Amino acid sequence: MISFSRVDTSVLGRWWWTIDRWLLSAILLIVAIGAILTLAASPPVAARIGLDTYHFAIRQFAYLPLALLTMIFVSLLEPVMVRRLAAVLFAVFLILTASTHFLGAEVKGAARWISFAGFTIQPSEFLKPTFAVVAAWMFSEWRKDTAFPGHFISIALFALVAGLLVTQPDFGMTAVISAVWGVQFFLAGLPVFFVVLVAVVFMTGSMAAYMMVDHVKSRVDRFLDPASGDNYQISRSLEAFQNGGLFGTGPGEGDIKHLLPDAHTDFIFAVAGEEFGLIACLFIIGLFATIVLRGFSKMFHETNLFVLLAVGGLVTQFGLQAVINMASTTHLMPTKGMTLPFISYGGSSLLSLALGMGMLLSLTRRRVGGEL
């Protein structure tokens, strides 16, 4: 068990006494639940496609130590170092995201991944947390000195990121980044003209995606009218929750995961519902809510505008991603390939979330006078 004296002035000692331990505990609990659910959900998927039974579990467990080390290391940084790290990583992954248009491996009709040395990475996953921090930096600098065009720089960067994601295409991630950026712009005090402009752009973009992109139109139509197309996965997902009841069928005893192609990724929450029941699902939702509400609580007591905007963006992104996954799984919104944070299988998702939560833990540490 970690134990440090209050007079310990070492890096780890200061970290332990300034970190938000409620946030840290909730994150670690979700990581542990994700490990259990990966073991429960992935073997049938691996067997179905001819891989070793624990192929996905082994790969996920290989990423876990690196993810935890990343989160702890980043949480040790001071806010000024967090924004510098975010700026460097944003530039790197922006270039890598652009390169997927030429070097990317196409999966399910989208070129979002780059493969090298036996590993596959989705660069756009890392744009979510890094762009949230960079946008917060630009907005805060604009507010410090209105002569500095921070809001215009942020708009230009957002347009570049959104353009790269739409052309992959990845409308789900575009929507999440757009929502996070919109929240930050609102918190930064954008003029009424921009409120109207952003709202019009978002609505126009959504309508254009529905009218011009076949799979987006198909998903929305099938959500509004289940009889209009194939709803196999969502039907099996709802069946899983029904089978699970209050307390579940027991670990490893679920049947629906043998029928769901994406049981270890997009529909892992359905596996939790069947094998561990409604009570466990509510506990998982409670953990996500704890992180989001704790983050917002910290944000509203923050005096430094950069920290306020960065925390607001990171918490909104984390919560929105969780809501989209769980709402899709329970048929409360059209299905979207969005991972459940720290629970769904995926190395890029796991590492990018660890980076984002490390930044959140760093920015919510107690600081003297709110200084950077």
Automatic annotation (TrEMBL):
Reaction equation(s) it catalyzes: [GlcNAc-(1->4)-Mur2Ac(oyl-L-Ala-gamma-D-Glu-L-Lys-D-Ala-D-Ala)](n)-di-trans,octa-cis-undecaprenyl diphosphate + beta-D-GlcNAc-(1->4)-Mur2Ac(oyl-L-Ala-gamma-D-Glu-L-Lys-D-Ala-D-Ala)-di-trans,octa-cis-undecaprenyl diphosphate = [GlcNAc-(1->4)-Mur2Ac(oyl-L-Ala-gamma-D-Glu-L-Lys-D-Ala-D-Ala)](n+1)-di-trans,octa-cis-undecaprenyl diphosphate + di-trans,octa-cis-undecaprenyl diphosphate + H(+)
Topology class, membrane: Multi-pass membrane protein
A Gene Ontology cellular-component term: plasma membrane
The keyword Nucleus appears for this protein: no
Keyword Metal-binding among record annotations: no
Membrane-spanning parts: 21-41, 61-78, 85-103, 148-167, 179-203, 267-293, 305-324, 344-363
Pathway assignment: Cell wall biogenesis; peptidoglycan biosynthesis
EC code: 2.4.99.28
Signal sequence, start to end: none
Record's keyword terms, sorted: Cell cycle, Cell division, Cell membrane, Cell shape, Cell wall biogenesis/degradation, Glycosyltransferase, Membrane, Peptidoglycan synthesis, Transferase, Transmembrane, Transmembrane helix
Annotated protein name in UniProt: Probable peptidoglycan glycosyltransferase FtsW
Organism, scientific name: Terasakiella brassicae
